[in-house]
Amino acid sequence: MVNGEPITDYDIEQRSKLDFISSHKQPARQDVINELIDEKVKIKEAKKFGVDPSSSDIEQSYAAMSTRMRITPEQLTKSLESQGIRPDTLKARIKADMVWTSLVRGRYKESLQVGEKEVAEGAKSEGDEAQQAEAFEYKMQPIVLIVPRGSPAATIEARANALFKSMQNATIRETVTKTSADMPPVLRELLDKTPIGHLTPPEVTKQGVEMVALCGRKPTTVDSPKKKEIRDKMFVQKYEAKSKSYLQEIRRAAMIEYR
User: Fold this and answer.
1) pLDDT tens-digit profile of 121-138?
2) Which residue from 22, 85, 195, 242 has the least number of CB within 10 angstroms?
3) pLDDT by residue (tens digit) across 207-231?
């Protein structure tokens, strides 16, 4: 019993199966019990501060998880049921994770922030490369040459060559502005090599032949990719430490009874 709410043998059995398919390791029974206790106290604490996601919020997260697995929510449900796991078992874990993340970030927002001095010290410990890495702001205009799906390579090549003769069947998208930290390394390197006012090399995608016109590139005080990586790492460390101490605090105050 956790604050008057039961954890049954069936709950433990269900969570053990879910943990097994998640980690491919058979969890110890007491570890599973502790996991379920943690979730009970997290959800109760979150409710005290008005953090209580609706069933539709949980369903959206469940669907998002299935999308990351490249299957439908229905397929995820069938997969769980085929292994003797009720979908509600996974949804309960999703809910606990949702409320706890929201609660910790909301209550301790200020103390979780990573200051510029901390990032600078982290960059210094990483070496000169991290300290000297510059960040740029790129102003780009994506261009798509529309090619019917499944067209042979010759058609794609001809369509790309036609760019300089006619702009029919081409889509020029709105100008976008992104910083170094917003882009994957491959695209960032490509844009750094592209002169301003020129196009990046054509790339065949589902839409057709895509290129990017580089309209501008200037230094920015926004984090460089390396500094963003350092800042994110420090935030995770702060979050995990605060999460652990907060959980210990509310567990000590909880009424936990074994029967």
Assistant:
1) 877 777 644 444 567 888
2) 195
3) 777 888 888 888 776 666 777 788 8
Beta strands in 9-151 (DSSP E): 135-146
Asked if 182 and 257 sit in the same domain, the reply is no
Please tell me what DSSP assigns to residue 141: E
pLDDT at site 67: 94
Predicted pLDDT at 131? 47
Helix (H) or strand (E) holding 203: strand 203-204
Domain at 199, CATH number: 3.10.50.40
Would you say residue 81 lies in a domain? yes
Greatest alpha-carbon span in the chain: 81
3-state class of 209 per DSSP? strand
Q: Examine the domain organization and report whether 71 and 179 are in the same domain.
A: no
Q: What is the pLDDT of residue 222?
A: 63
Same-domain check for residues 102 and 119: no
Rounded CA separation 145/206 (Å): 11
56 token code pair: 């539709």
- The string of DSSP codes covering 237-250 is HHHHHHHHHHHHHH
| Containing structural domain, residue 145 | 134-220
> Is 1 inside any structural domain?
no
Same domain, 120 and 150: no
Residues 161/135, Cβ–Cβ less than 8 Å:
no
210 DSSP β-pair partners: 144, 203
Task: Give helix 87-107 / helix 55-68 axis angle, nearest 10°.
Answer: 100
Identify whether residues 68 and 178 lie together within a single domain. Answer: no
pLDDT value of residue 124 = 75
16 alpha-carbon distance from chain centroid: 26
Question: Tell me, what CATH number does 31's domain have?
Answer: 1.10.4030.10
